[in-house]
Request: fold
Amino acid sequence: MTNREELNIALIGFGTVGSGVARILSTQAENIAVRAGRPVRLRRVVVRDLCKSREHLPADVTVSTDLQDVISDPEIQLAVQLIGGTDPAFDYMTRLLAAGKDVVTANKALLYLHGETLFRQASDQQRTIGFEAAVAGGIPIVSAVTQALTGNQILSLEAILNGTSNFILTHMLDDDKTYDDVLKEAQSLGYAEADPAMDVDGTDAAQKLSILTQLAFSTRVPLESFVKQGIDGLELLDLQVASDLGYKIKLLATSRLNDDQLEMSVQPTLIRADREIAKTDGADNIVAVRGDAVGMTRFSGAGAGQLPTASAVVADIIDYATGRTAVTFESVLRTLAQPDRTVQPPGELSRRCYLRFTVDDRPHVLADVADVLGRNGISISSVHQEETSDDSAARNGSARLVIMTHRTTEGNLRAADKEIGQLSSIQGTSIRLPVAD
Ligand SMILES: NC(=O)c1ccc[n+]([C@@H]2O[C@H](COP(=O)([O-])OP(=O)(O)OC[C@H]3O[C@@H](n4cnc5c(N)ncnc54)[C@H](OP(=O)(O)O)[C@@H]3O)[C@@H](O)[C@H]2O)c1
Reply:
């Protein structure tokens, strides 16, 4: 095929992202043809329900519910897979690759769970997979790591990768609202799914971190191998106390080379309020990448949403049309074939920590907690306790105790957690969060 011929594509899925892609393909058709070196034509769409009305669907596009229509159409070279989840997305991807189609996808759950198999199949069949939109939506972090920063040994990734969690944390603090209230608001505004479990329990961010880590450090790290904690247990009180101490709490995804070992975690983390990452608010994402040559680089913006995500998908389509995808994908495959690095066992993670307890308001309680911490090798950096009244009628018998620790290991903290949980003076659930340096 010469570069002047049209590139015919199919969209598998025409929901939020799919319709956004169709919209950009039609509104930016001329620009895209210039960048791609040839016109890009949307020829086919596959959906589940033919009766739904579809915005941005050009009249000359053939819509069906059968993937086979795309598979058996020799004119379609590239299929853009925009169905969520893994079933039937995985089956569809393997059938498309087997039929000789190249694929672009925005599906991170699919890549996290089946990326290895799909990449191997694509390689065996000399096909390509473009996946810029699968991590951090509109932020071009995949191309940064796989193209622009390849002259570096990447030393660390520090990121906010889940817009829903970031929206909730931002609005809890700014609007003085509880977790439940802001979650409902996020759902009504479309920032959170009806079932937000994977967003708020850290799974979505951890899957994206795992994909980025594989690209940056050529090591596949399953979620079970690193600490993953969501924002679902956080209270407004913690955000306020952290704020009083000069920190913001963010769901921070970190992957860092530490003496040739990979240190990874996804956790709500206290970050000094003046840092860029702490200032990333609302549904935005940020990825800070430190390279040995370039130093610190930061990529921020919309990590999800119709047009931002479609922007990344269309860039993948243009890359494919120019032939760039084939070159990058081969380089990605060579990177992924490198030996894995060792991942630091979670118990050896070493960080400063924020501890918050609700305790009986009586003598010796602080000494008891300090004693447990001391015996577990945890050194206290500061103690903050709200003043309670001397008036016994005004006292409710409990007090809030916040302890900031010096750097200590996750293993020491877990041992201390157990002992502190058994102290009779501790009420309710205690909160423990790392502090980013
Ligand atoms: N939305 C975002 O902001 C965003 C950001 C980054 C990445 N992503 C990823 O992009 C992908 C698409 O997300 P989305 O938000 O666009 O999802 P969506 O709005 O739910 O759309 C999904 C589309 O897939 C179609 N579909 C589902 N099952 C199908 C089946 N068995 N056969 C044929 N078509 C089927 C649906 O058809 P019907 O329309 O007929 O129901 C719908 O058109 C997901 O993997 C998501 O994680 C989304």
User: Anything to note?
Assistant: The two ends are 53 Å apart (CA to CA).
